[in-house]
């Protein structure tokens, strides 16, 4: 028996700098997860995935499971949560400025 379809988003990495991006309803790639288009229809999700594959812009496009909250899509897998929040080191990327580094004075 097939599993029921769960809401999905299209995600990838920007080719130029590796940033995690999400496909929006207006066919843009955004680094903001809250702007991601949430798809609840399997055929539509597969079509958007195929249409979004732009080798000169992004790499590694795939569908990721999400739930929907008042704040927008929420990843259901720890891998996607990790990708949405950025690297775990404190001085680079999206995580910079969000929490103190190991040498920070509290």
Task: List the SSEs and their pairings.
Blueprint: E1 8-14, E2 20-23, E3 29-30, H1 42-52, E4 58-69, E5 72-75, H2 78-85
Antiparallel strand pairs: 1-2, 1-4, 2-3, 4-5
InterPro entries: DUF2849 (IPR021270)
Protein name: Sulfite reductase (NADPH) hemoprotein beta-component
Organism: Jannaschia faecimaris
How many structural domains in the coordinates?
1
Approximate shape = globular
Radius of gyration: 15 Å
- Pick out the low-confidence regions: 100-106
- By DSSP, the count of extended strands is 5
Number of helices in the DSSP assignment: 2
Helix content: 10-25%
Strand content: 25-35%
Overall pLDDT score: 85
Q: Biggest β-sheet, characterized?
A: 5 strands, antiparallel
Structural class: alpha+beta
Q: How many angstroms does the end-to-end distance come to?
A: 54 Å
Give the spatial strand order of the biggest sheet: 3-2-1-4-5
Pattern of helices and strands: EEEHEEH
């Amino acid at each position: 028996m097939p599993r029921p379809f769960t809401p999905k988003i299209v995600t990838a990495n920007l080719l130029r700098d590796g940033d995690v991006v999400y496909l929006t309803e207006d066919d843009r790639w955004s680094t903001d997860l809250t702007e991601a288009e949430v798809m609840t229809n399997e055929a539509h999700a597969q079509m958007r995935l195929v249409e979004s594959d732009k080798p000169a812009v992004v790499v590694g496009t795939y569908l990721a499971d999400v739930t929907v909250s008042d704040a927008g899509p929420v990843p259901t897998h720890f891998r996607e949560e990790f990708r949405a929040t950025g690297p775990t080191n404190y001085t680079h990327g999206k995580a910079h400025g969000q929490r103190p580094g190991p040498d920070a004075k509290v």
